[in-house]
Amino acid sequence: MSGATVVWLRQDLRLEDQPALAAAAARGGPVVPLYVHAPEEEGDWPPGSASRFWLHHSLTALDGDLRRLGSRLVVRRGASLPNLLDVARRTEADAIHFCARSEPMARLRDGLVRRELEAAGLEVAAFNGHLLYEPQIVRTRAGEPFKVFTPFWNACRALGDPLPPLPAPSRLDAPPAWPVSETIAGLGLLPQPDWAEGMRFAWRPGERGARQRLGEFQRDGLDDYAAARDRPAVAGTSRLSPHLHFGEVSPRQVFHAAQEHGGSGAGVSPPRSRGSSPSAAWLREIGWREFAHHVLHHFPHTPEKPLRSEFDRFPWRRDPDRLAAWQRGRTGYPIVDAGMRELWKTGWMHNRVRMVVASFLVKDLLVTWQEGAAWFWDTLVDADLANNTLNWQWSAGCGADAAPYFRIFNPVLQGRRFDPEGEYVARFVPELARLHPTHRHAPWLAPSRALEEAELVLEEDYPRPIVDHETARKRALIAFQTIRAGSRRNPTQTA
Ligand code: FAD
Predict the structure, then answer these.
(1) Whether the CB of 378 sits within 6 Å of ligand 1
(2) Dihedral sign, Cα of residue 75, residue 81, residue 82, residue 88
(3) Which of the 8 DSSP states describes residue 114?
(4) Does 213 contact ligand 1 (Cβ within 6 A)?
């Protein structure tokens, strides 16, 4: 009979389709689920405020689910290695299991920890629990990593369907004595003072919440996904991103749920155009998640530096006042402000609006994408180093398969197109709710009578635009020309 197995849990906080846990249960001895809180091992990217809120509730939910199986979550804080060794010694464990991560600091740490654990005589096994396809096996014909999404996703699909998800273990044997554990509350993850009411209202962290959301989306949302996914006022997307980030649901579960719903369109059939089947359209987004992790795995410098190195020379501006206006949702562009306030209130923002606010920051304000990524990192419940980095670099035009820099979103037109009734704006920018929908995306253009009827005083109740979009657009294009021409002159210094 084998000794105990310590399952080192990180961003895989679930029981179903948890390969590290399933293999530990299959070994036959006691299983010791362990979470070590070690933010200092995450380099420049320890979990932000919204992520810590989520983590608290996710760990609590996991502990409850484990207790229903006669087990529990052992919680420690401090460096991972001594805690793993200590827990292994106290439970007479001879093996450590964990699921791999993509983040550069975590990979570095995991490699070092693994060597030390093996040197201490422990059997160590790492599993793929967070991706459909491991980043190192997806390669171009020349054996290189991909930098363009569509060929990457086609290559993934050519590898075949991922295996069906594993069931949750039906029982987990406890060790003869549980090692000492911190309380989850003792980790101090919850915000003080408590500003998280909006997030508590919007989300149910944990595996059950994830399963419920996946089930509801599969039943009620998937069929309309292609049409509704760009409408921020409706619940047209799955909102699974925080659950996927914390591993409360696995991408394999998501893949197979979509395939069950959509048949062959979701599987390895030849690629179809976007939207040809609801499942295929949705799985493409899961494909973007895979792509983001692939890019981070192969280009680990990208959270700090642009993939396209010419952008190192881009003449970004330091503009703390306008950056603060963007963060607080006070730019005077209603769709931008609604997005930033949705983020502040709920810890999440609709994807279409994320693209608009990101474009506004890097192109209209010329504030560097790293500032935007850092703000998102602190405020998003789904903050994910791979997804956040890829998408900010996409928005800035400096990353893999990025939007061309010269494509600059007009925030008024984007608002009118994707929120035609101004419902999203009215929900998150209540001072504009009484304004007639035709004026909601550009209140400064509204006739004074319409403003009076809405009892809206511009500048007092709601700001005028902090930049003129047309002027800002031209300035951004000139700035872009400087890196194209290889010139180091900064045209914005005199602007
Ligand atoms: P759905 O449309 O239901 O998609 C299903 C899943 O696919 C998502 O949960 C997510 O895991 C994945 N996905 C969808 N779109 C993308 C995408 N563009 N890139 C990568 N994966 C995607 N997503 C994060 O999970 N964490 C982040 O930190 C993050 N930062 C972003 C920053 C910017 C500037 C932008 C433009 C996008 C960012 N995204 C990020 C991607 C995207 O906005 C969210 O994944 C999506 O809004 C989540 O909503 P959903 O779960 O309803 O998505």
Answers:
(1) no
(2) positive
(3) H
(4) no
Nearest CA to ligand 1 atom 21: 289
Residue with structure tokens 């003869």?
A: 176
Q: What is the DSSP letter of 220?
A: I
Distance CA(453)–CA(446), nearest Å, equals 11
By alpha-carbon position, which residue is closest to atom 4 of ligand 1?
285
Q: How far apart are CA 486 and CA 102, in angstroms?
A: 33
Q: Which of 123, 351, 423, 431 is catalytic?
A: 351
* Catalytic residue, candidates 42, 123, 182, 285: 285
Query: Which among 387, 358, 152 is positioned nearest to 271, based on CA atoms?
Result: 152
From 482, 151, 167, 447, select the one nearest 316 (Cα to Cα): 482
450: left (phi over 0), alpha (psi -120 to 50) or beta: alpha
Query: Residues with Cβ < 8 Å from 195, sequence gap 6 or more?
Result: none
Residues 215, 217, 220: CA angle, nearest 5 degrees: 105
Kindly report, residue by residue over 241-288, the tens digit of the pLDDT. 999 999 999 999 999 999 888 753 443 333 334 445 778 999 999 999
| 251 C-alpha to ligand 1 centroid (Å) | 13
Residue 222's SS3 state is: helix
Pairing of strands 123-127, 93-99: parallel
Q: Which ligand 1 atom is nearest residue 380's CA? A: 28
Residue nearest to atom 15 of ligand 1 (CA): 285
**347 near 380, Cβ under 8 Å?**
yes
Is pTM, for the whole model, over 0.70? Answer: yes
Q: Specify whether 392 is catalytic.
A: yes
Nearest CA to ligand 1 atom 9: 241
Structure confidence by residue, pLDDT tens digits, 318-355: 999 999 999 999 999 999 999 999 999 999 999 999 99
Is there a cis peptide before residue 193, judged by omega within 30 degrees of 0? yes
Phi, psi torsion values for 33, nearest 5 degrees: -75, 130
- Cα–Cα distance measured from residue 285 to residue 264, given in angstroms and rounded to the nearest whole number: 17
Q: What are phi and psi of 255, to 5 degrees?
A: -60, -50
* 369 is annotated as an active-site residue: yes
Sorted by sequence, the CB contacts under 8 Å of residue 439 that are 6+ apart come out as 445, 446, 450
